Amino acid sequence: MQVNSSSTLTILHDGQFWVGICEHEDGGAYEARRIVFGPHEPTDEVVLAFVCEQWGKLGFGANMRPSLSDDREARGTELLKRPTKINPKRMQRTIHREIERRGVSTKAQQAIRDGYEAGKSDRRKQGREERLLAEERRYESRRQKRKEKKRGH
């Protein structure tokens, strides 16, 4: 019995970090892992070191199903199949839609935005309190003037 097995490593930039997509197909079963290389493009040496040292630790085959026919009989379902090729224009459109929906940001930018939002609510609360105090001061001064007018000079 011959079992076909293939593995691929695709490195791409996801807008924030350089990411490696590790795909493994073994006897009809398909698995994939996502590895983040960081904000800078990985050099050939870094990629080679990753493949030599870390590839075996990715756990491909650890949760593989025993065989295609056994699984179909047991569960009545098919194994995961390799995803079909997606048209590049369609992929680009879906990426742009996702970016518009979620926005591109790093964790640092998100933290800055959260801090700004928290400060904004504090500033609103403080402004509201200052307005109320100013209005009360104006009311008290009007009341004082009326009182002086009634007393006469």
- End-to-end Cα distance, whole Å, is 116 Å
Shape: rod-shaped
Order of helices and strands: EEEHHHH
Helical/strand content category: alpha+beta
- Which value, in Å, is the CA radius of gyration? 32 Å
Q: How big a fraction of the residues is strand?
A: 15-25%
Helix content: 40-55%
Main β sheet profile: 3 strands, antiparallel
Average pLDDT, to the nearest integer? 80
Count every helix, treating DSSP H or I runs of 4 or more residues as helices: 4
Number of strands: 3
Strand order of the largest sheet: 1-2-3
Question: pLDDT under 50 segments (min length 5)?
Answer: 64-80
Please render the helix and strand layout as text.
Layout: E1 5-13, E2 18-26, E3 29-38, H1 44-54, H2 68-75, H3 88-102, H4 107-151
Antiparallel strand pairs: 1-2, 2-3
Structure description:
- The protein is an alpha+beta fold and 153 residues long.
- Strands 1-2-3 form a three-stranded antiparallel sheet, with no helix packed on it.
- A hairpin with a 2-residue loop joins strand 2 and strand 3.
- The protein is rod-shaped and about 115 Å long.
Q: What distinguishing features does this structure have?
A:
153 residues; alpha+beta; three-stranded antiparallel sheet; 4 helices; 3 strands; 52% helix; rod-shaped
Quick gist of this model?
With 153 residues, the protein is of the alpha+beta class.
